[in-house]
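just leaving the lab so this will be short. what follows is a protein written twice so to speak, once as letters and once as structure tokens for the fold. can you read through it and tell me how you think this chain folds. anything you notice is useful, everything is just below:
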Amino acid sequence: MIEMRGGMAMIASREVCRAAARIKREYGMGDPFALARELRIEVLVRELGTLKGFYKDVYGTPFIFLSRRLTRGEARLVCAHELGHHLLHRQFAAFGFEEVSVFSPASRREYEANLFAAELLLDTKEMFDAARAGYTAEQIAASLGADVRLVTLKLSAMGISENLS
């Protein structure tokens, strides 16, 4: 379901989660680098100044640019986020995206790309089991080697954000 708010198309959170689940099921994996290869997206590591990464479609060829300054874990997260832009927002890529940080609340499209990344990278059953066992978002993130903001986002999408710090 796509909602319109202020003239901007917004994808329902449930649809973002389904899109991530569909791509994982179709390709049998959640590795954003391998998925980019399968989807014929060029992933380039470059000096990007303060940017961590961005997605751009150039004459029909999709590119994900990643900062050479990222750790492997950060690069994985940013690649998953940019993959979300490719699958959810490709129609905007010819114009470029606004410059925001990965977890900026400034844009609905950024939220959707973050949620896509959370769904792609974090296992729902592991998250549910850890939350049910009473672990905090910080503890879950530490045990999975994940960014706590990504964990918090996924828990919230799962409807288990209460009682977590």
About this structure: Confidence is low (pLDDT under 50) at residues 1-10, 97-101. The first helix runs from residue 13 to 27.
